[in-house]
């Protein structure tokens, strides 16, 4: 199976795990890697998101934030501001691996 729009974390504890994945849209394919980000700021992301520049350099392109839903259960949001790309992370379809997260794109509300 060819997977697109995912992050494979190195551990089930996503808060502290590194990961790598792919974001594919109609106009781009981004190989990404994510690294945990530790900050005392409660509004800071849990992870920084990196992609490769055309010459192969790792550049920071976005972040992942931990949020709470209406039932106070945690979930994660990914944002790449420069591209206007926003997504939630969730269990990848047909998989039981908690560390494999689908990137589920959504449009921001105006």
UniProtKB/TrEMBL annotation:
<dbReference type="InterPro" id="IPR007948">
    <property type="entry name" value="DUF736"/>
</dbReference>
<dbReference type="Pfam" id="PF05284">
    <property type="entry name" value="DUF736"/>
</dbReference>
<protein>
    <submittedName>
        <fullName>Uncharacterized protein (DUF736 family)</fullName>
    </submittedName>
</protein>
């Amino acid at each position: 199976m060819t997977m697109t729009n995912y992050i494979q974390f190195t551990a089930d504890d996503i808060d502290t795990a590194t990961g790598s994945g792919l974001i594919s849209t109609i106009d781009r394919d981004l190989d990404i890697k994510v690294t945990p980000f530790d900050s005392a700021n409660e509004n800071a992301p849990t992870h920084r998101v990196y992609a490769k520049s055309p010459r192969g350099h790792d550049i920071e392109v976005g972040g992942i934030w931990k949020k709470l839903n209406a039932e106070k259960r945690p979930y994660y949001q990914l944002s790449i501001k420069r591209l206007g790309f926003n997504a939630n992370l969730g269990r990848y379809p047909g998989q039981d691996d908690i560390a494999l997260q689908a990137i589920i794109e959504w449009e921001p509300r105006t």
